[in-house]
Amino acid sequence: MSFAAPIALTLAALAVPIIGLYILKVRLRRVPVSTNLFWKQVYDEKPPRSLWQNLRHWLSLLAQLLLLGLLVLAIADPFFAWQAARARRMVLIVDASASMQASDVEPTRFAEAIAEAHRIIDGVRDHDQVAILTAGVVPKVITGMANHAPTLRRAIDSISATDAPSSIDAAVTLGKQLVGDHPNAHVIVISDGAEAAPPDVDWRVVGTAAANLGITELQARRSFVDPVGYEVLVEVLNASEEPARGRLELELDGIIIDVLPLKLDAGETWSRTIEKTSLEGGQLTAKLTELEQTDSLAIDNKAAAIVPTRELQQVLIVSPGNLFLQKVFEANPLVRVTLTNTIPEVWPADTIVVFHQSVPETMPERDFLVIDPDADCDLWTIGDMIENPIVTEQDEESPLMTYIRLDNVLVPQAREIAFEGDAHPLAATVSGEPIYASLDRPAGKGLVLSVNLEQSDLAFRTAFPIMITNALAWFADQSGEWEPAIASGGIASITAAGGEKRTLVSPSGERTPITGDRAGPLAEVGVWTIEGEDSQSTIAVNLASPTESDLRPIAPSDLEQSTSIAGLWFTRPVWFYCAALAALLFAVEWFLYQRRLIG
Fold first, then answer.
1. Which residues contact 101 (CB under 8 A, 6 or more apart)?
2. Residue 33's pLDDT is what?
3. What is d(CA 590, CA 599) in angstroms, rounded to the nearest whole number?
4. Do the domains 213-310+544-549 and 84-209+551-572 match in fold?
5. 521 and 489 in contact (C-beta within 8 Å)?
6. Which candidate in 69, 164, 395, 414 could, as Cys together with 523 as Cys, close a disulfide (CB 3.0–4.6 Å)?
7. CATH classification code of 84-209+551-572
């Protein structure tokens, strides 16, 4: 036997004063009395001490010495060599993914996992070391190696479930790194078995093969054909062995815009694309309602998406007259058109200027679109006419060229343009001459198209209205036709003016400062808000995970659950038993003293 605090054995010297107090006789006090007749009579009548009366005095002394010995041993903290040799190094991994919120186990799978973790801690022996991890989007160490049971229990109680998927493999890898090459290493995973089991781990599986109907995808984007239209993509999974029925309700800013009946076979994935219109846009919400079967997970019964808002734009067309050009702008309900055939002396504010053929000597300090320019200006010089140009190069990455093909457009003539400053070619001929280019200047953005609309068939093709729609979106600094909903646990890319302070606000109201151009991981389902100094934007986050929505664990044969690793006996340190025996001995001695059996 060894001692953790051998210096405490010196406290055994306290036995000397205890023995001394029992050996020393009490010195009687002299008291004068009037007569000793009565005292003599009492002395004569007092019977001699029996053997038990002499013995119980020494039993009391032995009890006191034994009590002292037990307390000294408890303070010295003794331990056996075999205890140190058999000490275990364990890592307890708790699955905190969204599927652990399923209610097929009362009250939830996560609550049962926490209870199982407490049971494991109750079986931890003295000298065992335990670390606690959570398996979320990224593994998180809740507490490092420790053997203090109250600390471990508090760490377990501090764990909360997330709305994101988990990565069991990454958590197990981290756990194996923590236990190292210890001969008695254990990695314990408490999960619902939604992921395949890594080898060489102890599993505790919670949950049943529960049925669930969940929304696994919801996205909304603006239409490239209808300026006020948008398209909705929704996907629903029936993760059960039985058919499922219900309804899917779509709401835009709290107003129901569509209700779709659902009837899915076992294991079926239902998917639809729905077209709607809205000028204002807003928050789109999909809900599963009136389900006729058991649904054990509520978090995937609702999903959100953001429909981008459309702003009205003022457009001034300076042209000698072209009906196709006029109508392509007037057909857009987001555009307010003003026509003129002369170049104005004063340019209206907050207006996009469209020049057809005629251009001023100095371009205005605002956004402009020039089609078939016929004169030089401060930004370019007109060159020779290009006969029958063939477009062979297009910038496919530019949002200005989205859903546009010019290689099959008939262009009898186009003008050669030499730009004075930097211009970005969007479409160029086989000889490299740009026929469509963008200019991004501090005074305003510009687009130049050198195609003759009267001779070309561009105005008769669908590429022309799409080109104008893309240009208007580019002038309006729109982030795009699509503000994608992010799967929970994902990272959001954000843009803002340099140096602007931004704050990320979760659906539950938690505020986090943003540094850089990325935010996340976003592990809570709902609509997040990014608050800037002069701006505000939103991000929709959904579960969007068929793996998490499918609550059925993998085959039990694939999960090799080990027997309990808890210690069956002698789980507490030796000092605990010494202290317990001392307390018991103290109680017994007090009882016997009160009965006057010893003392």
1. 108, 109, 110, 161, 163, 297, 298, 299
2. 75
3. 10
4. no
5. yes
6. 164
7. 3.40.50.410
* Coil, helix or strand at residue 506: coil
Query: What six digits make up the tokens of 38?
Result: 């009565």
> In the prediction, which pLDDT does 43 show?
63
Domain range list for the chain: 2-77+586-594, 84-209+551-572, 213-310+544-549, 313-475, 486-542
Give CA angle at 226 (220, 231), nearest 5°.
20
Residue of 187, 158, 195 whose CA lies nearest to 93: 187
State the DSSP code for 400: G
For residues 519 and 537, give the distance between their C-alpha atoms in angstroms, rounded to a whole number.
13
pLDDT tens digits, one per residue of 144-172: 999 888 999 999 999 999 999 988 889 99
pLDDT at position 560 over 50: no
The helix (H) or strand (E) run that includes residue 62 is helix 51-76
> How far is 50 from 133, CA to CA, in rounded Å?
67
Q: In angstroms, rounded to a whole number, what is the distance separating the alpha carbons of residues 591 and 587?
A: 6
Say which residues have a Cβ less than 8 Å from residue 258's Cβ, sequence separation at least 6.
Answer: 249, 250, 274, 276
Mean pLDDT of 174-184: 89
- Coil, strand, or helix at residue 74? helix
**Measured between alpha carbons, how far is residue 549 from residues 73, 169, 228, 299 in Å?**
56, 19, 34, 9
Tell the residue number behind the tokens 């600390």, with chain if given: 151
> In this predicted structure, what is the pLDDT of residue 232?
95
Judged by DSSP in three states, 577 sits in helix
Average pLDDT, the chain: 85
Query: What's the pLDDT score for residue 203?
Result: 87
Tell me the percentage of the chain whose pLDDT exceeds 70. 86
Q: What is the CATH number of domain 313-475?
A: 3.40.50.880
Amino acid at the residue 224 = F
Asked if pLDDT for residue 195 goes beyond 60, the answer is yes
Cβ neighbourhood burial of 330 (10 Å; 0-12, 13-18, 19+): middle
Spell out a b/e string for 336-353, using b for 16 or more CB atoms within 10 Å of the CB, else e. ebeeeeeeeeeeeeebbb
Query: What DSSP assignment string belongs to 216-262?
Result: EEEEEEE-SSSTTEEEEEEEEEEESSS-EEEEEEEEETTEEEEEEEE
**What is the mean pLDDT of the segment spanning 451-461?**
89
Q: How far apart are CA 255 and CA 234, in angstroms?
A: 18
Q: What is the DSSP string of 255-312?
A: EEEEEEEEEE-TT-EEEEEEEEE-SS-EEEEEEEES-SS-----TTSEEEEEEPP---
* Omega cis (within 30) before 399: no
pLDDT for res 49: 52
Query: What pLDDT score does 123 carry?
Result: 80
Separation of alpha carbons 418 and 386, rounded Å: 13
In CATH, the architecture of 213-310+544-549 is Sandwich (2.60)
What span, in angstroms and rounded, lies between the C-alpha atoms of 385 and 379? 18
Give the gyration radius of the chain's Cα atoms. 42
Q: Where are the beta strands (DSSP E) in 128-197?
A: 129-135, 139-146, 185-191
* pLDDT > 60? residue 561: no
The mean-pLDDT minimum among 114-123, 232-241, 248-257 falls in: 114-123
First to last CA, the chain: 34
- The DSSP bridge partners found for residue 217 are 235
